[in-house]
Design brief:
The structure holds 2 protein chains of 2 kinds.
Chain A lengths: L2 H27 L5 E6 L2 E7 L6 E7 L2 E8 L2 E7 L5 H4 L10 E3 L4 E5 L3
Antiparallel strand pairs in A: 1-2, 1-7, 3-4, 4-5, 6-7
Chain B lengths: L1 H24 L15 H10 L2 H19 L2 H22 L7 H24 L8 H28 L1
Helix pairs in contact in B: 1-2, 1-3, 2-4, 2-6, 3-4, 4-5, 5-6
The chains are: A alpha+beta, B mainly alpha.
Chain lengths: 115, 163
């Protein structure tokens, strides 16, 4: 057993985890803005200001499938999707810059953008 | 001797495939894409320590292909294979430095690289770098899952040696 190499690896892992924890902590403390962008297949298809947007529901349809998006009380969420995993639906409302709503099968991303 | 290795490898593949299939039936506690325990990777770590590198690679490849056929999509296959390739390379590289009594560290490194591979695949498939904001979250959840799986693997290897 090479003790120095082992300690170096352990230190590297600890640094990676600590740095990630710092990022997450800062990201959670930061209040997200109100501007949200919807990306489909890497292209911006809509930019929405949640504060001024009226409550509405709309469907984003591509050749890969469809996602139903709801904006209500200044919050945005995916309420229906015809993909097999429906992770985007279970993610609920978009709450942090760190965790955009992603629908991997439909290549859809909803995330906050800086002002 | 050759038959023994073949049987052992087949057994490990079958076990990890069963764990993989059963785990897809368990709803995720954290609804974030990419976050899961990855219990099948217990067997990957075991294989890295008990088998030759190419044998472990073979086992993982077969498990990912069959797992995607049984309960996946062509897209989930891409994420799995990208994560699996990075995870396995990192684990095999770490194995030469990390002894069996510290397997949990190998497992954590594997988990970190697994998530890294998945994010890279997602960035390529979604054609946007914005998925990288997930990296810190996945590093932390991955490390916890990796630590757990690593301890499980350590227990298994200890018992296999006493057989």
């Amino acid at each position: 057993m090479n003790k120095t190499a082992f300690r170096l690896i352990l230190a590297a892992v600890v640094i990676v985890i600590a740095a990630s924890a710092l990022f997450v902590a800062v990201g959670l403390m930061k209040k997200p803005g109100s501007r949200v962008v919807i990306l489909s297949d890497g292209e911006v298809i809509e930019t929405i200001d949640l504060l001024s947007s009226p409550d509405r529901e709309f469907v984003i349809e591509t050749e890969l499938g469809s996602n139903t998006i709801r904006i209500k009380d200044g919050r945005i969420s995916v309420i229906d999707a015809d993909c097999p995993d429906r992770t985007c639906v279970s993610m609920g409302e978009l709450s942090s810059e760190l965790t955009p709503i992603v629908c991997l099968p439909h290549r859809l991303i909803i995330r906050f953008i800086g002002d | 001797m050759k038959t023994k290795r073949l049987v052992r490898l087949s057994l490990l593949t079958a076990i990890s495939l069963v764990i993989f299939v059963v785990e897809t039936r368990i709803p995720s506690l954290v609804p974030i894409p990419g976050v899961k325990l990855g219990l099948a990777n217990i067997i990957t770590v075991v294989a890295v320590y008990l088998c030759r590198p190419w044998e472990a690679a073979l086992m993982l490849t077969v498990r990912i292909i069959l797992g995607s056929i049984f309960c996946g999509t062509p897209l989930s296959f891409l994420y799995s294979i990208a994560g699996g390739a990075l995870c396995l390379s990192a684990s095999i590289a770490s194995k030469s430095v990390i002894p069996e009594t510290r397997m949990w560290l190998t497992s954590i490194i594997g988990a970190i690289f697994h998530n890294l591979g998945q994010i890279l695949a997602a960035a390529l498939i979604l054609r946007t770098a914005s998925v990288f904001v997930y990296l810190p979250v996945l590093m932390i959840t991955g490390s916890i899952a990796g630590l757990f799986c690593g301890f499980c693997a350590q227990l298994i290897v200890k018992r296999i040696h006493t057989l």
